[in-house]
Task: inverse folding
């Protein structure tokens, strides 16, 4: 049997993610795997010319405290 230690689950496709989230959660719970959620974003075109202009990074670990 395959041993799962980590699961990386993308959450930037709302409809597909909502459908698969219960299954992914169930698998993580049954196997004891660490579940990491991945959300990506497209950087604005101006980012390459001025890296300081894009300053809305968020510390998601700090949001839960």
Result:
């Amino acid at each position: 049997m395959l041993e799962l230690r980590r699961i990386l689950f993308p959450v930037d496709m709302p409809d597909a993610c909502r459908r698969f989230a219960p299954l992914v959660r169930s698998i993580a719970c049954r196997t004891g795997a660490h579940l990491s959620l991945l959300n990506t974003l497209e950087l604005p075109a101006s980012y390459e010319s001025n890296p300081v202009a894009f300053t809305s990074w968020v510390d998601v670990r700090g949001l839960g405290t």
About this structure: The mean pLDDT is 79.
